[in-house]
């Protein structure tokens, strides 16, 4: 019994620590913090080890103190402990009776009513306490609800719905501000942060220089530094080209299966940051001069 209690305490401490991690660390909806931040597993492991060490130390100290007692006192201690265990067992065994107020089969004759239908007897059993208290609670709840919403005219269901929709729209907007991978052709914007441009440069260097050269002067692919664009300039058009690929049969493939939307936004922004630079061997202009329309 004591070992079982120690196990429960260890599990409880680890569960509390886990709950604290989930509350303190922000994650995407539906994602566990311990998975998003693997280092927190080390913290949980430390908590588990410390809990085990404490339980082992307490058990060792208890055993040492027990051995220091005389035989007579050891017997009294064991008798007291067994008494406590038996009392606890008795409470657990009596729990079903407390919850249901049922009578033993041997005593059913005392609560039998004078109703007999084809051998089916009716007993005057008392309703279970949990059922009675739940019924009373429902009556109290109904009374409060009646007074609040029908006497004092608190908010209606329509007002509650509109408030929840408004809050949901706020939450969605806040989520979209930080969820970079929700970028679409309609929402993509030009990025100017140096860290984003550096990330875009790394993607460009690893995947685009073979066709466009390191300085974007153009090789197999067109020059990306001049004003001429085959499929249109600007962040939306460049992003669409990366997302869907270029003209059929011209070699420019779709990168949507290789990179996240946020990464495509970064490399598109980096490409546009090269506008006006002077490459070593610029390729002849291709396409038409693109001028961004002012909305």
From TrEMBL:
Keyword list, A-Z: Heme, Iron, Membrane, Metal-binding, Transmembrane, Transmembrane helix
Annotated TM spans: 7-25, 41-65, 130-147
Domain of life according to the entry: Bacteria
Pfam family, one: FixP_N
UniProt keyword annotation of Ligase present: no
Cited PROSITE patterns: CYTC (PS51007)
Record-annotated Cytochrome c domain positions: 195-275
PANTHER family: CBB3-TYPE CYTOCHROME C OXIDASE SUBUNIT FIXP
Name recorded for this polypeptide: C-type cytochrome
Taxonomic lineage from the root: Bacteria, Pseudomonadati, Bacteroidota, Flavobacteriia, Flavobacteriales
């Amino acid at each position: 019994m004591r070992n079982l209690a120690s196990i429960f305490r260890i599990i409880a401490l680890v569960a509390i620590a886990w709950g604290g991690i989930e509350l303190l660390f922000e994650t995407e909806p539906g994602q566990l913090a311990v998975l998003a931040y693997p280092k927190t597993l080390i913290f949980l492991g430390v908590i588990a080890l410390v809990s085990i060490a404490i339980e082992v130390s307490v058990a060792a100290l208890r055993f040492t103190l027990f051995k220091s007692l005389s035989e007579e006192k050891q017997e009294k201690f064991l008798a007291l402990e067994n008494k406590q265990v038996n009392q606890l067992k008795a409470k657990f065994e009596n729990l079903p009776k407390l919850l249901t107020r049922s009578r033993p089969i041997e005593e059913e004759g005392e609560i039998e009513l004078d109703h007999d239908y084809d051998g089916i007897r009716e007993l005057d059993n008392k309703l279970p306490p949990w059922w009675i208290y739940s019924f009373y609670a429902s009556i109290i709840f109904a009374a409060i609800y009646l007074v609040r919403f029908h006497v004092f005219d608190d908010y209606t269901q329509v007002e509650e719905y509109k408030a929840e929709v408004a809050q949901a729209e706020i939450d969605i907007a806040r989520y979209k501000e930080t969820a970079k991978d929700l970028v679409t052709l309609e929402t993509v914007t030009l990025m100017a942060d140096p860290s984003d441009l550096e990330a875009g440069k790394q993607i460009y260097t690893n995947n685009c220089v073979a066709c466009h050269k390191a300085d974007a002067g153009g090789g197999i692919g067109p020059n990306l530094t001049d004003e001429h664009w085959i499929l249109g300039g600007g962040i939306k058009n460049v992003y669409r080209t990366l997302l869907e690929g270029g003209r059929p049969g011209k070699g420019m493939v779709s990168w949507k299966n290789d990179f996240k939307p946020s990464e495509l936004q970064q490399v598109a922004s980096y490409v546009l940051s090269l506008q006006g630079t002077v490459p070593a061997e610029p390729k002849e202009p291709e396409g038409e001069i693109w001028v961004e329309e002012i909305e």
